[in-house]
Amino acid sequence: MNDLSGPRLPTFYLTAPSPCPYLPGKLERKMFTYLSGLAAEDLNDALTHAGFRRSQNIAYRPACEDCNACISVRVAVNDFNLSKSFKRVLKINSDLSAARHAPESRRTQFDLLRKYLDERHNDGGMANMNSLEFISMIEETPVDSHVVEYQEDEKLIACVLMDRLSDGYSMVYSFYEPDQKNRSLGTFMILDQIQRTKEAGLDYLYLGYWISGCRKMLYKERFQPLEQLTKDGWQPFIGSTF
To answer: What pTM was estimated for this model as a whole?
Structure first.
């Protein structure tokens, strides 16, 4: 008689090829599985360590033919040192207040996201996101997640959705006020989350994919020491090896 009491192995699926949102002329495919039930958190943790990312109740990773440009990266926060430019960013944003919330969507968040997408990513895969899709992105989480809001005089100017892992935090998605270029808000949120990861006694901040040949993703190289996922496990970052 079969034992049905043990945990089920996840079933993985493969998407059909579609235009890559990061590299012109390329096609992307993704391998994905669903996160649900009591095992969702442990599965998400294991899959993140294996190079997957979470979107709502789905964990996915690139599975493209003839392309390995997407490389999972994480910051070793306990060895991270602030450069002069990073200290400058922290000083510029020292007037901001930050608050951590449960993963519950707010209208102010969606309004900020729409402005961010319209001005920074109007040709990306999320360009047409509506309010219902935004609610799903924030609230449909089967794992330990939270939102951090950053405000200037009680006005929301930046926001990030975070997942808690066994050894760190994962930045699921962040967005910010695009008109305040002098603040370098994208950089500031990473610096703030590095500090929050340290304070939580964790070792790594997962930044998603560094993408060889994509200028929009090169900023992640700045947060050293950075580690990348290779066929031999997590190693010091050296970028593309193909």
So the answer is: 0.92
